[in-house]
Amino acid sequence: MTVGSEEDRRRLAQLIKDRALRFGEFMLASGQKSSYYIDGKQISLNGESLHLLASQILEHLPPEVEAIGGMAIGADPIAGAVVTLAAIHGRDLDAFIVRKQLKERGTRRQVEGPLQAGARVAVLEDVITTGGSTLRAIEALQRECDAQVVCVITMVDRLQGARENLAAEGFKLTALFDITELGVTPSENPES
After folding, report:
1. For 29, which of 36, 75, 143, 155 is 20 to 30 Å away at the CA?
2. Directed axis angle between helix 47-60 and helix 6-15, to 10°?
3. Structure-derived torsion over alpha carbons of residues 124, 137, 19, 156, reported in degrees to the nearest 10
């Protein structure tokens, strides 16, 4: 299935640079300070850029994947767009949401969605730094659903250890872009 073209990829990169990439002083989820920030919501909450992002993800999604999602809230709109686009192209795909913590009422679950036990899944991130949030999402998926994580897909890899940290746990990371492709040099990476 060919969904996302190279022209679409270039347009998405430009939209990330124009709408999501900011320079200044920022604190990241990893606790590190950074001289730049990529606000993934500026991409995932806009129609054109979300469509381009979903197309690129669908292009990189292994055929055995049955469901896609990730940590709330960053992955939520992306997962919804990917499963919708997949349906348009005749591919049956479910979405899921991983809460940051266990829900204390109702189902008392951390993972929401129509996941079957043992489902083969892809975990999404808008931007990944060290992979800590991703590994927490994977742990919840495996604990609650016995999910088989086929891959992790991110819009942008900040090149700060996520690929290595995920590989050490047996997971493959696919990044649509890394920071160098967006014009950010490694010297602009956060301080430890």
Report:
1. 143
2. 130
3. -60
Count of domains forming the chain: 1
Residue 99's domain is classified under what CATH number?
Answer: 3.40.50.2020
The DSSP line for the chain is -----HHHHHHHHHHIIIIIEEEEEEE-TTS-EEEEEE-THHHHTSHHHHHHHHHHHHHHS-TT--EEEEETTTTHHHHHHHHHHHHHTT---EEEEE-SS--SSTT--SEESSPPTT-EEEEEEEEESSSHHHHHHHHHHHHHH--EEEEEEEEEE-SSSHHHHHHHTT--EEEEEEGGGGT--GGGSPB-
Which residues form the domain of 85? 6-188
Confidence of residue 28 (pLDDT cuts 50, 70, 90): confident
Q: Is the pLDDT of residue 192 over 50?
A: no
Mean pLDDT of the chain: 92
